[in-house]
Amino acid sequence: MLGTLFAKVGVSILWLIHFLPLSAQAAIGNGLGRLLYAVGRERRRVATINLHLCFPELSDEQRNDLVRQTFCAFARSFIERGILWWSSAERIRSLIRVEGREHFEAIKGQPAILLTPHFVGMDAGGQWVAQHTDTVCMYANQKNQYLTRLLLEKRSRFGNQHLYSRQQGLRPILKGMRQGMPFIYPPDQDQGVKDGAFIPFFGVSAATMTSVPRIAQMTGAKVVPSLTRVLPGGQGYVLTFYPAWDNFPSGDDLADTRRMNAFIEDRIREMPEQYFWLHKRFKNRPEGAEKFY
Hints:
The protein has helices at about 1-15, 20-40, 40-55, 60-80, 80-85, 90-95, 100-105, 120-130, 145-155, 170-180, 210-220, 255-270, and strands at about 95-100, 110-115, 135-140, 160-165, 185, 195-200, 205-210, 220-230, 235-240. The protein is α/β, with parallel strands linked by helices. It has one domain.
């Protein structure tokens, strides 16, 4: 009960903030990020470990600065979510510049996977896509039922996102894809190896789902990466669609998943502060391997 009350108060504050110009919201988000960096000892530790594993060439000072930037980017994405939840479709579109749109248009009406790794701008890109075509997505239930209902309502507010819980499995996702709806899919978090394998990520074995090539094989889907960069201040976002991958799937799920991880690594190097380093990416380890957290 108390948790729901706090959640409703927080949502009310987001609703008030969403009326402000984006530049003001960015400033609030950066301030919140600095506060979270100062008090969020556990997540600060997780991010530091992740960056030490993935960017060992950085000095401690460089790594700490990148952790601070990560907290600010994460907090901005939280604050600016109010725009995605309550602003008009026109305002949202006005804030997003699209590059490579021809790659998005090329897969409309046919099975496709929009590969959307966990960068902080992913929800902004997802709302743009939802305004332009029907999609299928998966979601994880929150501990707080109020937040779960709110997230479902706001993510489907334009009527084009068809959301299914992980408990429902892939069947409704595959059905929607065969009807021509792209699957917005972020497969780059550690969910164990029940449906995956240990695949190198920045040279470190990481539990990685091998579902992208398997789903592509089952549906004949094209895989089109889709990433959203958050720009400084009030400049908005850049949503980039990349060309559909050739020779994918290749018939070798492990090789295809290594290819996916390598692509994500390259994009992270372009904007490392905007990747979701607060997640325990290396939580599950191969038998006998060192535990990191």
